Amino acid sequence: MFSKIRKRRIAWFAACLAAAFSTVAVVQTAFAATGCRVDYAVTSQWSGGFQGSITLVNLGDRLENWTLNFAFPDANQKVDQGWNAEWTQSGTAVTVRNAGWNGTVAAGASVTAGFTGRFSGANPVPASFSLNGTTCTGAVATSPTPSASVTPSASVTPSASPSSADPWNPPSTLVAPLAAVWEHQEDTYSDLYGFKNYGWDQLFANNGTINYCVRWDSAKQVSTAQRDAVHAALQKQYQKWMDQLTGWNAWPYQQVKVNVVGWAVRDRAQLEWTDSSVDIYVNDIREDAPQCSEPCGRFFHQDGNYSGCTGGTSRHYDHSLWLTDGFNGGAGGDWGQRIGTEYFMSNLTTENVHVLLHEIGHTYGLDDFYDWDPLDGKQGFIMMAGSATEITEFDKWMLRDWWRHLKSRYGL
Ligand SMILES: [Zn+2]
């Protein structure tokens, strides 16, 4: 249900990673290059028991989820307990499915999971592994990805074509790259036109405002001044994206007001204010982190019914800003943005909080660019993690492309 998160380090900073929209069942390429290598290791062994490890090396296109299958050669080999994945066994057949947080594996990246098991007699190594139904050969094969959740965009996707009256006037050098980006999104998002919880949808549901709740996934204290500075930083960074739309193609909101309506913490004493300017949620834990009340959250109530929210509709939140101690990089989606506490709190007055900007881009549907570059390396842009520290002309037009495709939803 929640978005996939992976970490990737870039030379001069650790940047984001995950485009996933949490309520899109699976974002998967309809025609994916699949290729894999699996390293299986017995990392320790004792009388009747052992610890095993598998490392999946993704030689194909980026994975949004993965299932590995293999068979134990010996009927007495059993998985007892696994980690970093869901492990199940039937007879000798073992299925290893990604955990909620490591389903996304970039092209060329790897993921490791482990288990403890039992055996008697020999403890032979499995001979063959398959990834999402395709045998891992160490080479790459291009094939239709068999997946029930892939929506064939040509046949059943509701159309959302821009009207011919809509302007489309990007700089001429960007026309072809922008078309390639849109086509790539159509190919790789499972429900590009049917999904109804993009940042756009949230913004229009609130007539041009966005409410945030902060998930303070940290052991640190927060002063009143820091609280207010977090709000100010969110407002300023958010508006940087909104400014890209000003005056173009009937965009209706010149200023988007960002409200911070709540904070979620493990311990109330971490928050050093006593006023009631925000709602405070204490020790409501989800994904091992404090969260704001689910009845108040847009992610949980996409129909806009916040009747269970203690603070009422005005205190509902659209996005979570999830700040995690020691978190390198980030993640973004319709649920909000996740970045490191240390990075964000030390950049509250930085002109461009580029990791946050990148993640907000995901909230508005923009994709990641790990495995291809529509600009052929000629210029960086904020959605290509690590290549730019501010919103560029190309980012602007990618955002505008989303707007022209979705605006008919809002009667504009
Ligand atoms: Zn990203």
Automatic annotation (TrEMBL):
InterPro entries in the cross-refs: CBD2, CBM2/CBM3_carb-bd_dom_sf, CBM2_carb-bd_dom_sf
Domain (CBM2): residue spans on this chain: 29-139
Compositionally biased residues, Low complexity: 141-165
Keyword set, alphabetical order: Signal
N-terminal signal peptide: 1-32
GO biological process, one term: carbohydrate metabolic process
Chain intervals for the UniProt region annotation (Disordered): 141-169
GO molecular function, one term: hydrolase activity, hydrolyzing O-glycosyl compounds
Source organism, top-level taxon: Bacteria
Entry protein name: Cellulose binding domain-containing protein
Species: Actinoplanes lutulentus
Lineage: Bacteria, Bacillati, Actinomycetota, Actinomycetes, Micromonosporales
